[in-house]
Amino acid sequence: MNFRKAQKADLPQIIAMLADDALGKTREDYRLPLPEKYLTSFQNIIKDSNQELMVLEADNLEIIGTMQLSFIQYLTYQGGIRAQIEAVRIRNDRRGEGLGKTMFEWAIKRARERQAHLLQLTTDKKRPDAIKFYEGLGFVKTHEGMKMHF
């Protein structure tokens, strides 16, 4: 298996994974050709050195996972860097093989390489299995998250 930065040609597979669950089906617009908004977002992500959109390739070069790491510089924690992990997905037919753990181990290592002082994530409360998974990796509930959708 190999981790690498996503390329434009990977977008259909990435968006398919993002849309392939109960919540993703309500949020994503997966169709081919992909809507332009995904291409525009991808271009913005790859231009930003604080964004790393990653894919996990199997030995046969098929994309079997994806995630995005964002590195947020701020003034608190003495000018610290916070790493945020988002959009973690494993292809449906490969779930249950321990690939999620492998992806998180890579993300933790990468956050340390970038000298982040913490790695954080948010997850929907409607995903109890994901919450248990994250807790098993050592993530702890320290804050109550709040959002305002527009």
Descriptive account of the structure:
This protein has one domain (2-136): Aminopeptidase, CATH 3.40.630.30. The chain is α+β, with helices and mostly antiparallel strands and 150 residues long. The mean pLDDT is 95. The chain has a five-stranded mixed sheet with strand order 1-2-3-4-5, with helices on both faces. It has six helices and five strands.
Helices and strands in order:
Elements: E1 2-5, H1 11-19, H2 22-27, H3 36-47, E2 51-57, E3 63-73, H4 76-79, E4 81-90, H5 99-113, E5 118-121, H6 128-136
Parallel strand pairs: 4-5
Antiparallel strand pairs: 1-2, 2-3, 3-4
Largest sheet: 5 strands, mixed
- End-to-end Cα distance, whole Å, is 38 Å
The domain tally reads 1
In round numbers, the mean pLDDT is: 95
The CATH architecture classification is: 3-Layer(aba) Sandwich
- Name the helicity range: 25-40%
Properties at a glance:
24% strand, alpha+beta, 5-stranded mixed β-sheet, 150 residues, globular
Describe what is shown at a glance.
The chain is of the alpha+beta class and 150 residues long.
